[in-house]
Amino acid sequence: MSLSRSRTRWVSDFFSYETTKSVVVKSWVVGVVNRGVQLLILAYFIGWVFLHEKAYQVRDTAIESSVVTKVKGVRGATPTSLPPSPDGSGDSDVPQGTSVFVVVTKQIRTEDQAQGVCPEVRGGVPGLLTGRCVPYNATLRTCEIQGWCPPEVDTVDVGHAPCHVLTENFTLLIKNSIRFPLFGFEKTNLPPPGSGAELGRCRFHPQLQPLCPILRLGDVARLAGQDFPALAATGGVLGIKIGWVCDLDRAWERCLPRYSFTRLDSLARTPAPGYNFRHARYYRWPDGSERRTLVKAFGIRFDVLVYGSVRVGQGLWGHMGVGDSGQQGLCSPRPGSSASSPPSSTRWLLSPPSVW
What we know:
GO terms for molecular function: ATP binding; extracellularly ATP-gated monoatomic cation channel activity; purinergic nucleotide receptor activity. It is found in: Cell membrane; Membrane. It is a multi-pass membrane protein. With 356 residues, the protein is of the alpha+beta class. It is 20% helix and 33% strand. The protein is built from seven helices and twelve strands. It has helices spanning 2-14, 28-52, 164-167, 217-223, 228-234, 314-320, 324-331; strands spanning 57-60, 64-72, 100-119, 128-135, 141-149, 171-180, 185-188, 214-216, 236-247, 258-263, 276-284, 290-313. Strands 1, 3, 4, 5, 9, 10, 11 and 12 form an eight-stranded mixed beta sheet that branches.
């Protein structure tokens, strides 16, 4: 009997139909809350997910970058310093073409050092101790050392004044080429040929000339929040950041670099503040003895740092495919535009001409 009832109930449930029952509530409060929640959800997806985060786009952050730098300027010479070369090549203390370079702003020179024994100076032992105590001056005796004599005295400026006054006017040309391999997108920070922009006559300015790749070193220090004379006295490390953050759904001409500047080394009180290094020039006297001039150089190190990312809509990228046709579609100008025409926002500030 129970088995027959269960079968009947199962057959009845199998052929039954369920549907939801809608209840219309005639209430302004409930209606406003309901529509408000719906609008918040819709605004979140449209405003945050699509417009702000652009979740519908594919992003590439694996930037490939090449940086070539060129520093130019005449530092001049003092009676105690080395004479400048006629063509100006002797006035540059930086290797050309790297993304990290140093401009020397002050030197402490120890002339005509020779191998021998001499009294130790205060602040260090630049040699081997012989174990003897010898007169340092009329009133002071000190340990004797064996090494390059006379020893370096790097606690005072030995007559070579900082040359930061002229170094501040050095100019720096940055050539930056970038590529995003996922989309095959390539670009450079230089104006295109035939654009009419005179590269040698522009100077970077954050408002007037934000795209000019020629920078004055004094302006770099100022934009990094540093005082150039104080920085030149002890040395330091400045960073020049070039950012490429582009949306390829827009016109490719709108993918432009952004320059920013900062100081990279710590400003906290440290045992060795600033930036300095030593190098020596070796030579022989007429009697055949080996001599050297030891130079402790203070300078400003510049690091060019490149970062960036590009985005493109998934539908556009999928339609283009990963191949030559996709690269051409992303990297070529839009129909009706000229590849040699610069962006409309490009403006060039004219200054005294310079040949690069």
